[in-house]
Prior knowledge:
The chain has helices spanning 130-138, 151-170, 184-195, 203-209, 214-225, 229-246, 251-257, 263-274, 278-281, and strands at 12-14, 30-37, 41-46, 51-58, 61-65, 68-72, 76-80, 86-90, 94-101, 124-127, 173-174, 178-179. By secondary structure, the protein is of the alpha+beta class. Helix 7 (251-257) crosses helix 8 (263-274).
Amino acid sequence: MPPVSAPSRRRAAVAPLDPLRFSPTRERPVRAKLRRLAPDTQIQPHSHAWAQVAISIAGVARITAGRHTYLVPGWRAVWIPPGVEHVVTALEAAELRTLYIHQEPDRPGPAVARRDCEPWRGCRVLEVSPLLRELVLQMDVTMDGQAPLGAPALEREARLGELVLDELRRAAPLRLGIELPQDRRLRALCEAVLQDPSRHATLDGWAHETAASPRTVARLFRQQLDTSFGPWRQQVLLAHALRLAAQGRPMGLIAADLGYASPSAFSAMVRRAVGQPPSRFFAMR
Length: 285
């Protein structure tokens, strides 16, 4: 199975901002950072000793962490545990707010009770409530990360941080995230699907493009991702639908852009995938 040739896109690689300037501590458990990225800018792979919440407040970013990738339109959040290497790519001009969160060694979540820790050990997509949105916008995002704060500013940061942690604990997880294979041949095919998921509607079309048999590609999907191509591609389509909805596209146009015969067929897919009608799910921006 030779690798599929995805459309080439030249990306500008940039280094992460020095994270130590924004590192959270027990005294300052929630720190905020702002970064604006031009289209097709990629922040090089990196990790942190603390947890972080990445939020796109404008534009769309793609965050690849561990074995999953996430397309993050405005006001969705990705929780990334400590030590997980991740790559951030701006698919269009984006403004990212990042929250760095101090954690006690035995408590992987945002100061959650031990019995609730397990879901926070891996990456997850979280819904951003209106209150969390406003709290994030109010957090200090001084660009150098080292500007001295007076006592009133530190007290305000502490109060906002407590509310941020409380909202994160309450945030509803979203069934989003696209698993990526380790096999380089299948990885190249999956990357091509991520760039243009509607180019082929069936596994046969993608297999033909790779000059491989559909049976071989199907076997690799089962071996590498423990799923079949159809459900995996459905997650890709859902992520792209979120991106289009964030741009204000009507549901009918989104359905057509993604290759659905009718808006009702698209709505049925969304209901199966997330358990909500499109009108509710795409309104959570």
